Amino acid sequence: MASLLGGQAVLAYPPAMHLVASDRGTVSAAQFTAAGGYLIYLNATPKQSTETLRNWPGFRIEHLKKENAVTARLLAVSRGVRFLGGTGTCVVDDYVTKIKSNHYTELACFVRGQTTASVIVAAAPTARWPSASAVLMRAVAAYQVR
């Protein structure tokens, strides 16, 4: 397990994953292929912009397009998702990266706790999503917010 700065949230990850370098103030864990590519990836980030429970689906897709995706497509939305200590809005989406044209599928949730808000992202290469999604969803279900 790893905590966001100030204990805002706790990211639980399976033993096969290891903490990896990430942006300041965030926590990330990943499992890699022998060649160094991502098998599965988890990230927790404090609220950083105008994201809300209501606008999360559109916000996430636009964020992907601005940051690192050539294309991004919304596949599913769930609202009122219960988390340990809070409630969230979650999306499943897929996107293709600007660099190397990698295709990923992710479960990304904006989660509001009693005192803080944060985002948890669970991703895998789209070809691996069917086999990776169960372990990633368990990690998301164990996410704790304050």
Q: Strand count, sense and closure of the main sheet?
A: 7 strands, antiparallel
Write out the strand line-up for the largest beta sheet, numbering strands in chain order: 3-4-5-9-8-7-6
Question: Which range does the strand content fall in?
Answer: over 45%
Which of globular, elongated, flat, extended, rod-shaped describes the shape?
globular
Mean pLDDT: 97
**Can you tell me the CATH superfamily?**
Mog1/PsbP, alpha/beta/alpha sandwich
Helix content percent band: 10-25%
The second-level CATH architecture is 3-Layer(aba) Sandwich
Span of the ends, CA to CA: 15 Å
Identify the CATH class. Alpha Beta
User: Which parts are unreliable, with pLDDT below 50 for 5 consecutive residues or more?
Assistant: none
What number of domains?
Answer: 1
Tell me what you see in this structure.
The chain has 146 residues and is α+β, with helices and mostly antiparallel strands. It has one domain: Protein Transport Mog1p, Chain A (3-Layer(aba) Sandwich). The mean pLDDT is 97. The strands form two sheets. A seven-stranded antiparallel beta sheet has the order 3-4-5-9-8-7-6, sandwiched between helices. A three-stranded antiparallel beta sheet has the order 1-2-10, with no helix packed on it. The radius of gyration is 14 Å and the shape is globular. 17% of the residues lie in helices and 49% in strands. It has helices at residues 56-67, 129-141, and strands at residues 2-3, 9-11, 18-20, 27-32, 38-46, 69-83, 86-97, 103-113, 117-125, 144-145.
